[in-house]
Amino acid sequence: MDDRIQISHISKSFYTDTGELLVIDDLSLTLKKGEILAILGPSGSGKSTILNILSKLLEPTSGEVKINGRIGYMFQHDHLLEWRTIMDNVTIGLEIQNKLNEETKGKVERLLKTYGLWEFRGSFPKELSGGMRQRAALIRTLATDPDILLLDEPFSALDYQTRLMVSDDIYQILKKEKKEAILVTHDISEAISMADEICVLSKRPARIKNSYKIDLTVAGEKTPLKSRKAPEFKDYFDALWKELDVNV
Protein backbone atom coordinates (compact mmCIF):
# COMPACT_ATOMS: atom_id res chain seq x y z
CA MET A 1 0.00 0.00 0.00
CA ASP A 2 1.70 3.19 -1.25
CA ASP A 3 -0.85 5.57 0.26
CA ARG A 4 -0.90 6.33 3.97
CA ILE A 5 -4.69 6.23 4.31
CA GLN A 6 -7.44 4.96 2.03
CA ILE A 7 -11.07 5.54 3.01
CA SER A 8 -13.44 3.66 0.71
CA HIS A 9 -17.20 4.29 0.63
CA ILE A 10 -17.65 4.73 4.39
CA SER A 11 -20.93 5.68 5.98
CA LYS A 12 -21.64 6.43 9.63
CA SER A 13 -24.98 6.55 11.40
CA PHE A 14 -25.81 7.38 15.00
CA TYR A 15 -28.94 6.18 16.71
CA THR A 16 -30.89 8.72 18.77
CA ASP A 17 -34.23 8.86 20.55
CA THR A 18 -35.78 10.19 17.34
CA GLY A 19 -34.26 7.53 15.07
CA GLU A 20 -31.24 6.99 12.84
CA LEU A 21 -29.03 10.01 12.05
CA LEU A 22 -26.85 9.58 8.95
CA VAL A 23 -23.73 11.74 9.42
CA ILE A 24 -21.39 10.40 6.69
CA ASP A 25 -22.66 8.91 3.43
CA ASP A 26 -20.51 6.93 0.94
CA LEU A 27 -17.34 8.96 1.52
CA SER A 28 -13.97 8.09 -0.04
CA LEU A 29 -10.63 9.89 0.25
CA THR A 30 -6.89 9.17 0.16
CA LEU A 31 -3.92 10.57 2.06
CA LYS A 32 -0.81 10.17 -0.08
CA LYS A 33 2.69 9.74 1.32
CA GLY A 34 4.48 13.03 1.92
CA GLU A 35 1.31 15.11 1.83
CA ILE A 36 -1.00 17.14 4.03
CA LEU A 37 -4.70 16.66 3.27
CA ALA A 38 -7.16 19.29 4.52
CA ILE A 39 -10.84 18.59 5.08
CA LEU A 40 -13.18 21.57 4.81
CA GLY A 41 -16.88 21.50 5.47
CA PRO A 42 -19.82 23.31 7.06
CA SER A 43 -20.24 23.18 10.82
CA GLY A 44 -21.69 19.83 11.89
CA SER A 45 -20.87 18.13 8.60
CA GLY A 46 -18.94 15.28 10.20
CA LYS A 47 -15.31 16.43 9.90
CA SER A 48 -14.36 15.33 13.42
CA THR A 49 -16.32 12.10 13.00
CA ILE A 50 -13.96 11.18 10.14
CA LEU A 51 -10.95 11.71 12.42
CA ASN A 52 -12.59 9.66 15.17
CA ILE A 53 -13.07 6.80 12.71
CA LEU A 54 -9.41 7.02 11.61
CA SER A 55 -8.23 6.96 15.23
CA LYS A 56 -10.55 3.99 15.93
CA LEU A 57 -12.57 5.89 18.50
CA LEU A 58 -15.54 5.08 16.25
CA GLU A 59 -16.27 2.32 13.77
CA PRO A 60 -17.86 3.14 10.41
CA THR A 61 -21.34 1.72 9.85
CA SER A 62 -20.17 0.50 6.43
CA GLY A 63 -17.21 0.86 4.12
CA GLU A 64 -13.49 0.20 4.55
CA VAL A 65 -10.57 2.10 6.08
CA LYS A 66 -6.94 1.14 5.36
CA ILE A 67 -4.15 2.80 7.33
CA ASN A 68 -0.48 2.31 6.53
CA GLY A 69 1.30 3.48 9.69
CA ARG A 70 0.73 4.64 13.25
CA ILE A 71 -1.71 7.45 14.02
CA GLY A 72 -1.11 10.43 16.31
CA TYR A 73 -3.98 12.76 17.26
CA MET A 74 -3.58 16.49 18.00
CA PHE A 75 -6.74 18.04 19.39
CA GLN A 76 -8.24 21.50 19.16
CA HIS A 77 -7.05 22.36 22.69
CA ASP A 78 -3.58 21.46 23.91
CA HIS A 79 -4.82 19.50 26.98
CA LEU A 80 -1.53 20.07 28.78
CA LEU A 81 -1.68 19.09 32.44
CA GLU A 82 -1.14 22.27 34.45
CA TRP A 83 0.54 20.47 37.38
CA ARG A 84 3.18 18.81 35.18
CA THR A 85 6.25 20.50 33.70
CA ILE A 86 6.59 20.76 29.93
CA MET A 87 9.06 17.87 29.94
CA ASP A 88 6.65 15.75 31.97
CA ASN A 89 3.78 16.75 29.67
CA VAL A 90 5.53 15.82 26.44
CA THR A 91 6.64 12.45 27.80
CA ILE A 92 3.25 11.43 29.22
CA GLY A 93 2.31 9.35 26.16
CA LEU A 94 5.56 7.43 26.45
CA GLU A 95 4.88 6.86 30.15
CA ILE A 96 1.41 5.50 29.43
CA GLN A 97 2.81 3.16 26.77
CA ASN A 98 5.65 2.14 29.11
CA LYS A 99 8.15 3.30 26.48
CA LEU A 100 9.97 6.04 28.40
CA ASN A 101 13.65 5.12 28.32
CA GLU A 102 16.99 6.77 27.52
CA GLU A 103 16.46 6.42 23.77
CA THR A 104 12.93 7.88 23.67
CA LYS A 105 13.83 10.58 26.21
CA GLY A 106 16.74 11.54 23.97
CA LYS A 107 14.34 11.96 21.04
CA VAL A 108 12.10 14.21 23.15
CA GLU A 109 15.10 16.29 24.16
CA ARG A 110 16.05 16.68 20.49
CA LEU A 111 12.54 17.82 19.60
CA LEU A 112 12.47 20.34 22.44
CA LYS A 113 15.86 21.75 21.42
CA THR A 114 15.03 21.83 17.71
CA TYR A 115 11.71 23.60 18.15
CA GLY A 116 12.61 26.19 20.78
CA LEU A 117 11.21 24.70 23.98
CA TRP A 118 14.31 23.23 25.61
CA GLU A 119 14.84 26.16 27.98
CA PHE A 120 11.19 25.85 29.06
CA ARG A 121 11.34 22.11 29.81
CA GLY A 122 11.06 22.79 33.56
CA SER A 123 8.30 25.39 33.17
CA PHE A 124 4.61 24.78 33.71
CA PRO A 125 2.00 25.27 30.94
CA LYS A 126 0.62 28.49 32.47
CA GLU A 127 4.05 30.06 31.96
CA LEU A 128 3.97 29.51 28.18
CA SER A 129 2.24 31.46 25.42
CA GLY A 130 -0.60 29.88 23.45
CA GLY A 131 1.70 29.21 20.52
CA MET A 132 4.35 27.57 22.68
CA ARG A 133 1.70 25.39 24.31
CA GLN A 134 0.59 24.15 20.88
CA ARG A 135 4.18 23.38 19.95
CA ALA A 136 4.50 21.41 23.20
CA ALA A 137 1.29 19.54 22.35
CA LEU A 138 2.67 18.63 18.93
CA ILE A 139 5.97 17.43 20.44
CA ARG A 140 3.95 15.30 22.88
CA THR A 141 2.22 13.72 19.86
CA LEU A 142 5.48 13.26 17.95
CA ALA A 143 7.19 11.70 20.97
CA THR A 144 5.29 8.43 20.46
CA ASP A 145 6.64 8.30 16.88
CA PRO A 146 3.43 8.30 14.78
CA ASP A 147 3.66 8.18 10.99
CA ILE A 148 0.44 10.13 10.41
CA LEU A 149 -0.98 13.06 12.38
CA LEU A 150 -4.66 13.90 12.70
CA LEU A 151 -5.01 17.63 13.37
CA ASP A 152 -8.47 18.61 14.61
CA GLU A 153 -8.66 22.40 14.21
CA PRO A 154 -5.40 22.75 16.16
CA PHE A 155 -5.16 26.54 15.82
CA SER A 156 -8.76 27.62 16.41
CA ALA A 157 -8.26 28.48 20.11
CA LEU A 158 -5.48 30.97 19.26
CA ASP A 159 -5.74 34.65 18.38
CA TYR A 160 -5.27 35.50 14.70
CA GLN A 161 -1.63 36.62 14.80
CA THR A 162 -0.55 33.67 16.95
CA ARG A 163 -2.54 31.36 14.69
CA LEU A 164 -0.55 32.47 11.63
CA MET A 165 2.77 32.02 13.42
CA VAL A 166 1.88 28.61 14.87
CA SER A 167 0.56 27.28 11.55
CA ASP A 168 3.98 28.14 10.10
CA ASP A 169 5.68 26.35 13.02
CA ILE A 170 3.50 23.23 12.77
CA TYR A 171 3.84 23.02 8.98
CA GLN A 172 7.62 23.21 9.12
CA ILE A 173 7.78 20.62 11.93
CA LEU A 174 5.58 18.22 9.93
CA LYS A 175 7.74 18.59 6.84
CA LYS A 176 11.04 18.38 8.71
CA GLU A 177 9.93 15.29 10.64
CA LYS A 178 8.51 13.80 7.40
CA LYS A 179 5.01 13.22 8.73
CA GLU A 180 1.81 13.02 6.71
CA ALA A 181 -1.24 14.74 8.17
CA ILE A 182 -4.96 15.20 7.83
CA LEU A 183 -5.99 18.71 8.87
CA VAL A 184 -9.62 19.38 9.76
CA THR A 185 -10.37 23.09 9.65
CA HIS A 186 -13.16 25.55 8.90
CA ASP A 187 -10.62 28.20 7.81
CA ILE A 188 -10.29 28.33 4.01
CA SER A 189 -7.04 30.35 4.05
CA GLU A 190 -5.48 27.96 6.54
CA ALA A 191 -6.37 24.97 4.38
CA ILE A 192 -4.96 26.51 1.18
CA SER A 193 -1.74 27.65 2.85
CA MET A 194 -0.96 24.31 4.51
CA ALA A 195 -2.42 21.54 2.38
CA ASP A 196 -1.30 19.68 -0.72
CA GLU A 197 -4.92 18.67 -1.35
CA ILE A 198 -8.27 19.89 0.01
CA CYS A 199 -11.45 17.82 0.20
CA VAL A 200 -14.68 19.77 0.58
CA LEU A 201 -17.55 18.11 2.40
CA SER A 202 -21.22 18.71 1.72
CA LYS A 203 -23.58 19.54 4.55
CA ARG A 204 -24.73 16.54 6.59
CA PRO A 205 -24.79 13.74 5.64
CA ALA A 206 -21.22 14.39 4.54
CA ARG A 207 -20.12 13.43 1.06
CA ILE A 208 -17.07 14.61 -0.88
CA LYS A 209 -18.43 17.58 -2.78
CA ASN A 210 -15.16 18.32 -4.57
CA SER A 211 -11.41 18.07 -4.13
CA TYR A 212 -8.60 20.43 -5.12
CA LYS A 213 -4.90 19.78 -5.65
CA ILE A 214 -3.12 22.89 -4.38
CA ASP A 215 -0.31 24.21 -6.57
CA LEU A 216 1.02 27.58 -5.46
CA THR A 217 3.88 29.64 -6.88
CA VAL A 218 6.12 30.34 -3.88
CA ALA A 219 9.67 31.72 -3.99
CA GLY A 220 12.11 29.57 -2.04
CA GLU A 221 11.00 27.13 0.64
CA LYS A 222 7.23 26.94 0.98
CA THR A 223 5.65 28.08 4.24
CA PRO A 224 2.01 28.87 5.05
CA LEU A 225 2.79 32.59 5.38
CA LYS A 226 4.51 32.70 1.98
CA SER A 227 1.69 30.65 0.47
CA ARG A 228 -0.85 33.33 1.35
CA LYS A 229 1.00 35.72 -0.99
CA ALA A 230 0.98 33.34 -3.97
CA PRO A 231 -0.81 34.68 -7.08
CA GLU A 232 -3.06 31.59 -7.23
CA PHE A 233 -4.19 31.92 -3.61
CA LYS A 234 -7.19 34.18 -4.29
CA ASP A 235 -8.52 31.91 -7.05
CA TYR A 236 -8.45 28.88 -4.73
CA PHE A 237 -10.10 30.94 -1.99
CA ASP A 238 -12.93 32.10 -4.26
CA ALA A 239 -13.56 28.57 -5.54
CA LEU A 240 -13.62 27.07 -2.04
CA TRP A 241 -15.84 29.85 -0.71
CA LYS A 242 -18.42 28.96 -3.37
CA GLU A 243 -18.09 25.24 -2.53
CA LEU A 244 -18.87 25.95 1.13
CA ASP A 245 -22.02 27.91 0.31
CA VAL A 246 -24.60 25.61 1.94
CA ASN A 247 -27.29 26.96 -0.37
CA VAL A 248 -25.52 25.64 -3.49
Describe this structure in words.
There is one protein chain. The protein is α/β, with parallel strands linked by helices and 248 residues long. The protein is 34% helix and 25% strand. It is built from nine helices and nine strands. It has helices spanning 47-54, 86-90, 92-96, 102-114, 130-143, 160-176, 188-194, 224-227, 233-243, and strands at 5-16, 19-31, 36-40, 62-67, 71-74, 148-152, 180-184, 197-201, 208-213. The strands form two sheets. It has a six-stranded mixed β-sheet with strand order 5-6-7-3-8-9, sandwiched between helices. It has a three-stranded antiparallel β-sheet with strand order 2-1-4, covered by helices on one side. Helix 6 links the parallel strand 6 and strand 7 (180-184). The mean pLDDT is 88.
